[in-house]
Amino acid sequence: MEMVSVAATKAHLSKLLDRVEKGEEIMVTRRGKPVARLSPVRPKKKPLPLLAEFRSKIPRLKTTGSKVLRMMREEGC
């Protein structure tokens, strides 16, 4: 990550933003100490569907889970 002073950032902001748009991160410093970071904006992730909505779309089994397990045990699975 490149470090750039506040003065250089003010003088070359447009060029720095072009670089950030391409994926670079740039640390802005004041008197040699980091004070800010320029980084690209990440697209928002699509939120997960509600659990109740997800469950409602799953077809119901005609038998219980315990019966399925017993059948599997009997069959030697």
What can you see in these coordinates?
This protein has 77 residues and is α+β, with helices and mostly antiparallel strands. It has a domain at 2-38: YefM-like domain (YefM-like fold). It contains 4 helices and 3 strands. It has helices spanning 6-11, 13-21, 51-56, 65-75; strands at 2-5, 26-30, 33-38. The chain has a 3-stranded mixed sheet with strand order 1-2-3. β2 (26-30) and β3 form a beta hairpin. The longest helix has 11 residues, at 65-75. The mean pLDDT is 91.
Q: Which structural traits does this protein have?
A:
4 helices, rod-shaped, single chain, YefM-like fold, 77 residues, three-stranded mixed beta sheet, alpha+beta
Write the layout of secondary structure elements.
Elements: E1 2-5, H1 6-11, H2 13-21, E2 26-30, E3 33-38, H3 51-56, H4 65-75
Reported for the largest beta sheet, the result is:
3 strands, mixed
- The H-and-E topology, N to C, reads as EHHEEHH
> What class do helices, strands and sheet pairing give?
alpha+beta
Measured by DSSP, the beta-strand proportion falls in 15-25%
The Cα radius of gyration reads 28 Å
CATH topology of one domain: YefM-like fold
Number of E strands: 3
Mean pLDDT: 91
First-to-last CA distance: 55 Å
Shape, per Cα inertia axes: rod-shaped
Looking at CATH, the homologous superfamily of one domain is: YefM-like domain
CATH class of one domain: Alpha Beta
The CATH architecture of one domain can be given as 3-Layer(aba) Sandwich
Helix content: 40-55%
Across the major sheet, the strand order is 1-2-3
Give the helix tally.
4
Are there runs of 5+ residues with pLDDT below 50, and where? none
